[in-house]
Design brief:
globular; mainly beta; about 240 residues
Length: about 240
């Protein structure tokens, strides 16, 4: 069974320090059954990152724009797991053969999160974040494993982070990673239409606490507007 093309990941590689270039990469959903817990399982997507030199950071930007999924703390793209590997698979039944690279640090020291907009009714924070709502709580999110329970009640909801509409999540890798034959696997909790087809950005530079325009390219005017709107609302409430 062939993988079906779902969308495009936009991948930008800083080939020269301070200078970014971008190229589109095919983004596909793995064949086979969804994985993980109930009531709805996780869809797994893959991107071939070959040709982007050596990378030191990776950023995912949600572009669900209010479509699909739940509201409140479960708004936006719900990320079950993220894995980099030189193992190439085409079906979810092969996930057990994937050898993940030990390059992610899912603690606050290795991640930066810009929360997206919640759909009404809003919650004090997005699911899978710490008490401030601005950091990943990996004891809940468990981003190294495809283990999400997609319930919209806490508990039993577990094993993912909800990014909010327009949310941005960056990861600093433990060292430079060669992208030749490198594959990125991500899990979409619930397989409910919040496909992360907006953008993934990879860079030779470490990610910044606040994503910089020179690094986050081709996110799209709609996504940028959503992020700005969220920031303006937060400022107006101070």
């Amino acid at each position: 069974m062939q993988r079906g093309s779902i969308g495009v990941l936009v991948v930008a590689a800083c080939l020269i320090a301070g200078s970014a270039s971008a190229s589109p990469v095919s983004f596909t959903k793995l064949s086979g059954a969804d994985v993980g817990g109930s009531p709805a399982a996780t869809a797994v997507y893959e991107a071939d990152l070959s040709g982007n030199g050596n990378i030191l950071s990776l950023t995912i930007a949600d572009n669900s724009t209010g479509l699909g999924g739940a509201a409140g703390q479960f708004s936006g793209f719900d990320l079950d797991a993220i894995v980099l590997s030189y193992t190439d698979i085409s079906d979810t039944s092969q996930l057990g053969t994937v050898v993940p690279l030990a390059v992610f640090n899912f603690s606050p020291a290795g991640t930066f999160f810009t929360p997206g907009v919640q759909r009404a009714p809003a919650n004090p924070k997005l699911f899978g974040t710490d008490v401030t709502g601005t950091l990943v709580d990996n004891l809940v999110a468990t981003l190294g494993a495809f283990d999400a329970n997609s319930a919209v009640v806490v508990p039993p909801a577990f094993g993912f982070i909800s990014m909010g509409d327009g949310g941005v999540l960056s990861f600093n890798l433990s060292g430079l990673v060669n992208t030749t034959n490198l594959h990125l696997y991500i899990g979409e909790v619930g397989d409910n239409g919040e496909v992360a087809a907006g953008s993934v950005t990879v860079s030779q530079d470490p990610a910044s606490p606040v994503p910089e325009p020179g690094t986050l390219t081709l996110l799209g005017s709609g996504l940028l507007a959503a992020v700005r709107s969220a920031r303006n609302r937060r400022r107006s409430n101070v």
